[in-house]
Amino acid sequence: MSANGNSGSNEGGEAAPATPPPSFRLDIADRMKRWHGKVAVVTGASGAIGGAIAIELVKAGMIVCALSRRRDKVEKLRASLFDVAGTLNYVECDITVEDDIKYAYGWIENTYGGVDMLVNNAGIITKCLLTEKNNTRDLYKTMETNIVGLCMCTREAVKSMKARDVKGHIINVNSIFGHKVHQAVPGTRPLNGMYPASKYAVTAITECIRQELVYLGTGCKVTSISPGLVEGDILSTNTSKDNEIVNYMPKLKPEDVAEAVLYAITTPENVQIHELIIKPMGEFL
User: Low complexity bias located where (predicted)?
Assistant: First the structure.
């Protein structure tokens, strides 16, 4: 009998256990290689979640174009990156303005040839009630940013992907409020307003986009990622002053959402993560 048991028979006369086949599951870093040198648009990259996503994509070697109104925030983010494989670009853009979006995508096309990935992360939340007087501008602002802006950015990205026959990926950063309306404590001011309605719309829009991508025969994927409360995001920072309990609620880190994005964009070609809901342990929303 050989010392390692690879030949001969064992003492009980049973066949030696077969050597397990090699695993073909590659880690995230290996699977991200397909995106190396590709172009990703990230809206709202000046925020906590958008910034974390942009950083991970740049580390993976992607050319990230951050669409934002805040150059200082993006420049600060870029200054924090050392010895990374990709690049981070600031592209001034208000996603509620169609001309801004067309200019931004035009600049990307002229500079890099087009877009391979879109992360629709930009979003806002206002504190006004739906029944509050003089709230019209806030209502429009929420819908223009969270819904119309997302759709216009997606339209231009799909146009670029289809023209170049690119099997790209669209990520919609949604919310658990796109699936459930938070229950207000009786006697306290509701904090929902138009925000859940806009995120419910993103849930529906994601499915509509999926159907359109199939119809167009693009081979592109679309994923909705719905996190719970996240440290430093608009939901946590905007509601904590009005509802102290938010300060004590469990929260995800922005990096947790970024890792969910990496998971979604590194699935095999025949696999599409359509909806991914991630919550912090102990969440009670």
Answer: 1-17
pLDDT value of residue 184? 79
Q: What is the pLDDT of residue 32?
A: 93
Q: Which residues are catalytic?
A: 195
3.40.50.720, 3.90.1150.10, 3.30.70.20, 3.40.190.10: CATH of 28-278: 3.40.50.720
Distance (Å, rounded) from C-alpha 264 to C-alpha 258? 10
Q: Let me know: does 112 contact 63? Beta carbons within 8 Å.
A: yes
Looking at this protein, which amino acid is placed at residue 11? E
Give me the residue spans of the domains in the chain: 28-278
Q: What are phi and psi of 125, to 5 degrees?
A: -135, 135
Q: Exposed, middle or buried by CB within 10 Å (0-12, 13-18, 19+), for 280? A: middle
Separation CA 224–CA 215 (nearest Å): 19
Output the pLDDT for position 19. 56
pLDDT digits over 142-162, tens only? 999 999 999 999 999 999 999
The whole-angstrom separation of Cα 70 and Cα 66 is: 10
DSSP 122-180: --------TT-TT-HHHHHHHHIIIIIIHHHHHHHHHHHHHHTT---EEEEE--GGGT-
